[in-house]
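quick one, 750 residues, struct below
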Amino acid sequence: MSEAREFKYIGQSTIRPDGFDKVTGRANYGADLSLPGMIWGKILRSPHAHAMIKRLDTSRAEAFPGVLAVATHSDFPSVTDQAIESGEGSLTLLDLARNVLAKDKVLYHGHAVVAIAAKTSAIAEQALALIDIEYEVLKPVMDVREAMAAGAPILHPDMFTQGLAEKPTTASNVATRLEYKMGDIEAGFKDAEVVVEREFYTPTAHQGYIEPHACTVRYEKDGQSMIWCSTQGHFDVRASTAKLLGLDLGKLKVIASEIGGGFGGKTTVYLEPVALILSRKSGRPVKMIMDRDEVFKATGPGSATRSWVKIGARKDGTITAMQGRLAYEAGAFKGSPVMMGCMTAFTPYAVSNMYIEGFDVVVNKAKVAAYRAPGAPQAEFAVEMLVNELAVKLGRDPIDLRLQNAAKEGTQTIYGPKFKRVGLVECLEAARDSKHYQQALAANQGRGVAAGFWFNVGGQSSVHINMNPDGTGTIVEGSPDIGGSRASMQMMAAEAMGIEPGRLKPIIGDTENVAFSAGTGGSRTTFATGMAVIEAAEDVVAQMKQRAASMWNVTAEQVEWVDGVALNTAGEDRLSLAEICAGADRTGGQISGRGNINARGAGPSFAVHLCDVEVDKETGKVDVVRYTAVQDAGKAIHPKYVEGQYQGGAVQGIGWALNEEYIYGADGLLENAGFLDYRIPVASDLPMIDAIIVEVPNKFHPYGVRGVGESGIIPPLAAVGYAVENAIGVPVTDLPLSPPRVFNLIQGKG
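---
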């Protein structure tokens, strides 16, 4: 892509195609579908964090009037430990089945045990109380330190640590040990004149989406079974459910409803396989909707972590060595994002000597799920806090120190590739030159700076564009829209075809109506699905030129396409897109373009955030008084939506830094399973967040796109954390920085 390229539609902030339906309430979300004869499903969940199921008797519940079906783990066919994709990570089919419905043992508070379908939701609730179940309560393991300690209660007697030099002979709560290294870490620290090191903690935190998980299903013995659900990846729902229940993919259609937030948390299945079992048994469609406390207790939050990081540098500011040890909670089943944490922690820096070790650890909490740049915020929090400390010890401006050591084109990453052109330097310079950074701080205020890195991914995307006889068209894509991607698809297709965006309607096709597409996650959609849209649009243009050529009796090479019009270079003939579509029945039938790709070359994204806080030293209350998010978008297709992604990521990161955490009792029970007690930021908690869009084009995308959805949640933890440290003059190691914790730090009791 040429940086000087002029666009006609790309870079505008158009009205979103789905906006009218959403503001008028016409949009259909996960709980909005009703089918004739539909019944309701409910789940009995464990009241314990860790217990053996000694006896389970559902006979009284099954006999209750109005109950039509009961499901337990025994209703799954034999499943294996085959690894399957699940959102932005993977787990085994066996673990997925045991998470959906417990087998023999419950492993967290809220673990699903039995499901009931009845004529009404109230009857189902009553029947749950009739299930006779006897538990043998076990000691829960609630923290990675405890889980890794000798003599800790073992969650899975058949789990042995992978990644050790010698094969272990005893079971462990550590599922995997992994490491990444580059250069000579010992030599790097020997070369250092200043060394900083510290341990850090980040808590279990939920994505905080407003819409609970919901689905409506209909099982057809001899036909097509159907699932309607709130999901970020309906093809993933189809694959997971089909494998769990032993169904052919072709026998299962999944329709993605509108989605009321996900942020990675709706990339796996919880209700869908259960509802399909209940529908199969009852012969009726089944609807299931989680209550809010079920969402908090039984769906995947982000990992809690404990990290140790050490950084060495020469007095001139050159960082010579970076070392870390990261322990991530996976929840009840293995599969935390520790690998991504290890891969991202040091990546903003061009340092020759790096070593990082990671541990994937099971504890008695809900199995974690992806949460916006999964694994990266926790790891980069620890690193960025230390880089700020290093700047103080060296007497350097924190942005200048980062600029001196910043990753750039040609930098070797610890996880493998060398960078092509990236925009970290430009982001740092934009932050340094911002009005925010020039503003002086008042009393009791502190400032934090932090950088963040996310890979961005590509993957498979499928699109077809169907043209109508009047020259309008429909873009059918396979990527659920969770952040305004319909508008981006519309604009990219319009740019490629040279027509007004409003003439193209983007829709999300179900698993029958569009070819396979990977889920909406990993900041892949505008990049990868956008490339498929461009390919489909170019296919339409090629066909338009061919049709015009046949009308003029010339070759397609003699036809130019300019702003939606075919021009005959051998004469003065002109045909608009609408005219060609109107006559398509005479030149071969209506026109449809297709794009099916497995995208490569997703451009990495860097962000730099500035945060100013004011701390009330008498109460420990922290107020964010100014915030600026700077990030490289490659090319902002829709600038307002890009700014919204920056601001949304910042708000979630601020919440994680200041207030958000799962609070468990000594018995392992979750005590704040609702938005009243799990406190996410609201508008009154925040200043206006300034967004600065940096554009360093990604040469692997026709329009220069880099994904922007995830990098923005990475810097806030350290930007806020260090701003508080700067304000109170006391080292910060643990999040969240709630008033009691900050007050204790001020009082020297941290």
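The longest helix spans residues 525-552.
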